[in-house]
């Protein structure tokens, strides 16, 4: 993995952010029984992130499984109260919002990082301070 990324060290991640760089967390915590979502929440809490960008293989949060139900409805926004599972693990974090978006669609990572409308916005607001060229 060292050819692609460096190991997570909190100080380094914060330093990258201070220099205006984007920090991407991938994989889990290395501990059994913890999901990659848990790892993302943990890392975001450690660096005082404003938002969790959750890349997945669907367009966002649906009211049903879109792979099984062609009539499943995509939510543009949700509150923490509407999505109790997210509220539970974000309750003690300083994260303002979670953006769930489709990783497999070209351009979605850039849109999410820039704070553009993509997928489902959960919680507060997400207004990126990333400069665009």
TrEMBL record:
Assigned EC number: 2.7.4.22
What does the record list as GO biological process?
UDP biosynthetic process
Pfam families assigned: AA_kinase (PF00696)
Q: Which GO terms describe its molecular function?
A: ATP binding; UMP kinase activity
Is the Zinc keyword given for this protein? no
Q: How would you classify this enzyme at the top EC level?
A: transferase
Look up keyword Transferase and say if it applies: yes
Q: Where is the Aspartate/glutamate/uridylate kinase domain?
A: 12-85
Keywords from the named record: ATP-binding, Kinase, Nucleotide-binding, Pyrimidine biosynthesis, Transferase
Q: Which InterPro entries match?
A: AceGlu_kinase-like_sf (IPR036393), Asp/Glu/Uridylate_kinase (IPR001048)
**Which pathway does the UniProt entry assign to this protein?**
Pyrimidine metabolism; CTP biosynthesis via de novo pathway; UDP from UMP (UMPK route): step 1/1
Task: State the superkingdom.
Answer: Eukaryota
**PANTHER family annotated for this entry?**
URIDYLATE KINASE, URIDYLATE KINASE PUMPKIN, CHLOROPLASTIC
Protein family per UniProt:
Belongs to the UMP kinase family.
Q: What is this protein called?
A: UMP kinase
